Structures are given as structure tokens and as C-alpha cells.
Amino acid sequence: MKPEPTSRELTVGQLAARSGVAISTIHFYEAKGLIKGWRNRGNHRRYAREVLRRVAVIKVAQRTGISLNAIRKALGSLPKGRTPTADDWKELSGQWKADLEDRIKRLARLRDQLNGCIGCGCLSLGVCPLRNPSDVLSKQGPGPRLLDPG
Q1: Which helix (H) or strand (E) segment is 45 a member of?
Q2: Residue 82: other Cβ atoms inside 10 A
């Protein structure tokens, strides 16, 4: 195993290995504006060591179901696009917590009602006398009106 250079620069391979994501993911994050790198004189990609923290934030946020768009917006809100500090992480994660709690509630409701009527105007066709009599939910629009009201 090659020792890492003492500089604060990382190659794309080193960044991928240290962050636990594939090289293609690093390129994808950069293409989406989530991380930034530069090219050295030899035209090779280089990244600041601080990008490791940004990748960690992205991975955690993605695992909680936060969209890449929301992640990019949150990271873009940091002054001068800096690497998130512990205080920044508290702020960012706090913003996402309410969304996560809402999704947990919706998923729990879906789980609990999954075996019953799906309560949508487009599929009940007026045959559900308990939850959608006379297909009244169809007036609210297409899709599952009772399970996913949001």
C-alpha cells in the first residue's frame, strides 16, 4: 500500500478509498456541484483533504433519504462553500430532521395500512363503500389520497 502524500491534496483514488465511495461517485458528486476539485500541472484531478468531510456529510444525508438537490442547497448555504464544521452539521442535520420525521410517519402509516384499501380515486372505481364511497376521492385528484396526502 502506497503511503499518502504529506500534502493536503488527494487524488481521486485516495479520496474514494478514504471516503468509502467509488471513484465514479466522486466524479458524480463533482459533476453535481457537491464537491470541487482542480487539475494539477499533469492534468490529474486533485481534491483538498477537507473534501473528505463533505463526502461524509453527503453520504449520511443520502442514507437518510435527503435528495442531492437538497444536499447541494444546504452545502451551498455555507459561507464561501466551506467544509462543514461540527456546528454547521448541527444546523444542516436540524434542517433535515423535520423532513425525516415526516417521512417516517408517512412510511409507518403506509406500513400499517398496506394490506387494506389504498383509498385512491383512480383505482377504487367507486367500489369501496368504507373508505371511498361513490369514489369521492377522485375529486381530489389522481393517486393514493388516503395513504400519501402530502
Answers
A1: strand 45-48
A2: 12
**Segment 35-85, tens digit of pLDDT:** 999 999 999 999 999 999 999 999 999 998 899 999 998 888 888 878 888
Q: Is the pTM of this model over 0.90?
A: no
Single-letter amino acid, residue 65: G
User: What are the residue boundaries of the structural domains of the chain, listed by start?
Assistant: 9-115, 116-150
Instruction: Write down the CATH number for the domain with range 9-115.
Output: 1.10.1660.10
Angle 64-8-3 (CA atoms, 0-180°, nearest 5)?
95
Residues 6+ apart with CB under 8 A from 90: none
User: Alpha-carbon distance 66 to 61, whole Å?
Assistant: 5
Alpha-carbon span 54 to 63, nearest angstrom: 14
Q: 66, 34 in Cβ contact below 8 A?
A: no
